[in-house]
Design a protein that fits this description.
Length: about 250
């Protein structure tokens, strides 16, 4: 796979974002777990004037993101070399690496192994599912809660959050509990399996955010791993029942 192959796909949450915002472009997007900036390219394409705040704790990925920003001439992007979780601290990040069997080590166009680093310790489940994926290194990284970051930066309404934190979903959400009432929508990865020690079940995530006023409007699971999309109905002019998505296309009912 190349980054161009990745970008040629259109994830369902991209269609949902286009539907929800229509011609009114969002002002603020947060990408929590930016990896190489692959998804940043998509957000810059569909919402060029929106401000994008990128958070990535893996120091090895920071240069890759900066290269992506330069190569694709991405605008309105600000990068923060830290993780977002439930407290402000210095913590260990388990660094992922490796390539699947059959992928030549000479290929430099797509890093398969750098997308699974986590603040949580990898469990035997991920090692069994992806034996090629290795966690040989731990590094100390800066960790912030979104609540404290938002107070520091004076953030207001957050239109959308892309959450890709490799098992630490509930920790991130708990650290954003004061901010969530001002979040219009978010996309999040979930897993029925504890790929990392302490990883929440999808229902735990759903139960938590429903108490914060969110409604789930989309879920896609394959092999126990998938995505969920939530909106804060009071911050939109539509109700959850007015949104339908099928075959990767979003429409109003």
């Amino acid at each position: 796979m190349t980054i161009e192959d990745y970008l040629a796909e259109t994830p369902s949450h991209i269609n949902l974002l286009k539907l929800l915002f229509g011609t009114v472009e969002p002002q603020l997007i947060l990408e929590v777990g930016a990896c190489e900036g692959e998804d940043t390219i998509r957000y810059c394409e569909i919402f060029p004037t929106a401000k994008k705040l990128l958070f990535e704790p893996n120091p090895q990925n920071i240069e890759l993101i900066q290269n992506t920003i330069t190569k694709y001439s991405l605008k309105n992007v600000e990068l923060f070399n830290c993780a977002l979780s439930n407290r402000d601290e210095i913590a260990s990040l388990y660094i992922s690496s490796g390539r699947p069997d059959g992928v030549s080590p000479e290929r430099k166009d797509w890093d398969y192994g750098n997308k699974s680093s986590s603040l949580l310790k990898p469990s035997h489940v991920i090692k069994d599912l992806l034996p090629w994926l290795k966690f040989k290194q731990k590094v100390d990284v800066s960790v912030r809660s979104l609540d404290s970051f938002s107070r520091e930066q004076g953030l207001g309404i957050i239109d959308f959050i892309h959450i890709d934190v490799q098992g630490a979903e509930l920790d991130f959400l708990c650290g954003a509990s004061s901010v969530l009432s001002s979040v219009r929508c978010f996309w999040i990865e979930v897993s029925d399996f504890a790929l990392y020690e302490g990883q929440p079940k999808p229902q735990e995530v759903e139960d938590f955010v429903k108490k914060q006023g969110f409604s789930k409007i989309f879920e896609s699971m394959s092999g126990g791993i998938g995505d969920q999309f939530y909106i804060q109905p009071k911050l939109f002019c539509i109700q959850p029942t007015e949104v339908d998505i099928s075959n990767g296309q979003a429409d109003r009912r």
